[in-house]
Amino acid sequence: MSLTNAFALMYAPSKEWKNISEQKQSISHIYLTFLAFFAAIPPASAFVGSTYVGWQVGSGETHTLTTESAMYLSIAAYLAIMAAVLVLSLFVQWMAKTYGAKPTLSECLNLTAYSFTPLFLAGFLGAFPILWLDMLVSLAAIGMSINLLFKGVPQLMGINEEKAFLFSSSILTVAMVSLVGMLAITVIFWGTGLSPVFQSN
Questions:
Q1: What's residue 144's pLDDT?
Q2: pLDDT tens figures, 134-143
Q3: 198 — phi, psi (to 5°)?
Q4: Is 25 left (phi over 0), alpha (psi -120 to 50) or beta?
Q5: Which of 180, 179, 19 is nearest to 114 (CA)?
Q6: Which region holds residue 60: left if phi is over 0, alpha if psi is between -120 and 50, else beta?
Q7: pTM
Q8: 131-157 and 161-191 helices, crossing angle to 10°
Q9: Mind listing the pLDDT tens digit for each residue in 86-131?
Q10: Residue 114 · residue 6 · CB < 8 Å
Q11: How far apart are CA 58 and CA 174, in angstroms?
Q12: CA distance 147 to 1
């Protein structure tokens, strides 16, 4: 049901969040039937785009990565996404007490994972590295993910709209801090040898 839930969220979020809340999907279920596939979309698409399509800066030459380098980076990105969703879910569960909610970790994981659906789908554009197009679609996907989050919090956390708004805002803050942390970790990895290797033209 997870893939069905994900696509239904795109056109009927309020109704689908209610269905997800009633289904009480376990952590293993979410990972095996949803995240395992959707989290692979951005790194797999980026692998194709960086090795077979390439990108240009201005009107300069096309840049591509070696297959081996792109593969390592894609695998690292995939594992990072899988871990980041769990870590953010733990933060959501920890913060929930402040707003009078007592969700299980699986409920927090449901909220976090499904809220990322538009961003996962936008990852398909990684196969076509056109900077301006990717930026526009990514901004739209971020907006849709925020909308899903704000509609999902009252349903899955069982709190009123006022508390849900404050809780959602806190989750967004943590998500942004986590993103900065992931970028910092990426820089560290690059310094230890896991950096992009460009193909010579």
A1: 93
A2: 889 989 999 9
A3: -85, 145
A4: beta
A5: 19
A6: beta
A7: 0.87
A8: 130
A9: 999 999 999 998 898 899 999 999 999 999 999 999 999 888 877 7
A10: yes
A11: 35
A12: 22
